């Protein structure tokens, strides 16, 4: 009778020891530390009055990568271009423009350039023909179907034979305001297509730039 009573007690003791050992072992495993974060998408775009879901992904010191779903704070500079819901990370387009979006999580930050745009159904560029010598620049303006100047959000490149060239660099200058295409001293004299595209618009607008020697 004594032996029969000891067996259940012994088994219960073994189970308790096992549970205690398991709990103590878990104490040796430390959660991985967040080392960097990124915003996805990396260059978010949203139509005015529409929304775009943003996400933050973290890389940890054990090499793993997963979405950071809590403790994320958002800010934008300048403000008023987009708004971001702090609870859902949903971005809403407020007015046409670009803004730097910053996400903060666990003492780490990540930035991305966000663009808010209107739907464009037609794109034009002016002047349609121009000429410029090496070491000079030529200004171009891009407009939509309502004759609104959208040069600040347009992407403008110089191409020759369908290939983008690096000897003519185009970028928006808000002091003009226009897309300013600077012709390098090494640009080969001849004709170049100045090609303008716009977020959300599948077509493009082109102008002809003739480069001359100085």
Give the key terms:
Immunoglobulin-like, 214 residues, four-stranded mixed sheet, five-stranded mixed sheet
What is the secondary structure topology, with strand pairs?
Layout: H1 2-26, E1 34-40, E2 45-47, E3 51-53, E4 55-60, E5 65-67, E6 72-77, E7 82-84, E8 90-93, E9 97-105, E10 108-117, E11 124-126, E12 129-133, E13 137-143, E14 155-160, E15 163-164, E16 168-173, E17 178-183, E18 190-197, E19 205-212
Parallel strand pairs: 2-10, 12-19
Antiparallel strand pairs: 1-4, 3-8, 4-5, 6-9, 7-8, 9-10, 11-13, 13-17, 14-15, 14-18, 16-17, 18-19
Mind explaining what this structure looks like?
With 214 residues, the chain is mainly beta. The protein has two domains: 34-117, Sandwich (Immunoglobulin-like), CATH 2.60.40.1080; 124-212, Immunoglobulins (Immunoglobulin-like). It has one helix and 19 strands. The strands form five sheets. Strands 12-19-18-14-15 form a five-stranded mixed β-sheet, with no helix packed on it. Strands 2-10-9-6 form a four-stranded mixed β-sheet, with no helix packed on it. The longest helix is centred in the first third of the chain and has 25 residues, at 2-26. The N and C termini lie far apart (113 Å).
Strand order of the main beta sheet, please?
A: 12-19-18-14-15
**Structural class, from secondary structure content?**
mainly beta
Largest sheet: 5 strands, mixed
Written as H for each helix and E for each strand, in order along the chain, the element string is HEEEEEEEEEEEEEEEEEEE
| Count of structural domains | 2
What proportion of the residues form beta strands (DSSP E)?
over 45%
Tally the beta strands. 19
Low-confidence runs (pLDDT<50, min 5 residues)? 22-26
Return the CATH topology of the largest domain: Immunoglobulin-like
Helical content (DSSP H or I, runs of 4+): 10-25%
Write the CATH architecture name of the largest domain.
Sandwich
Tell me the radius of gyration: 29 Å
Mean pLDDT: 90
Helix count, DSSP H or I runs of 4 or more residues: 1
Global morphology: elongated
In whole angstroms, how far apart are the ends?
A: 113 Å
CATH superfamily label of the largest domain: Immunoglobulins
CATH class (first level) name of the largest domain: Mainly Beta
């Amino acid at each position: 009778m004594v032996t029969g009573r000891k067996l259940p007690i012994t088994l219960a003791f073994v189970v308790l020891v096992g549970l205690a050992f398991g709990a103590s072992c878990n104490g040796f495993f430390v959660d991985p530390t967040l080392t960097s974060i990124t915003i996805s998408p990396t260059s978010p775009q949203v139509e005015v009055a529409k929304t775009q879901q943003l996400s933050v992904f973290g890389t940890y010191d054990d090499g793993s990568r997963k979405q950071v779903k809590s403790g994320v704070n958002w800010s934008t500079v300048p403000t008023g271009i987009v708004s971001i819901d702090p609870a859902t990370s949903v971005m809403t387009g407020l007015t046409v423009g670009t803004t730097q979006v910053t996400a903060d999580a666990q003492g780490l930050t990540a930035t991305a350039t966000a663009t808010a745009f209107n739907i464009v159904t037609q794109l034009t560029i002016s002047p349609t023909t121009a000429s410029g010598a090496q070491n000079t620049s030529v200004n171009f303006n891009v407009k939509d179907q309502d004759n609104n100047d959208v040069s600040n959000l347009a992407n403008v490149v110089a191409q020759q034979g369908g290939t983008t060239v690096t000897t003519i660099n185009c970028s928006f200058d808000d002091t003009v305001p226009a897309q300013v295409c600077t012709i390098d001293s090494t640009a080969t004299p001849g004709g170049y297509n100045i090609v303008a595209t716009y977020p959300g618009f599948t077509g493009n607008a082109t102008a002809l730039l003739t480069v001359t020697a100085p």
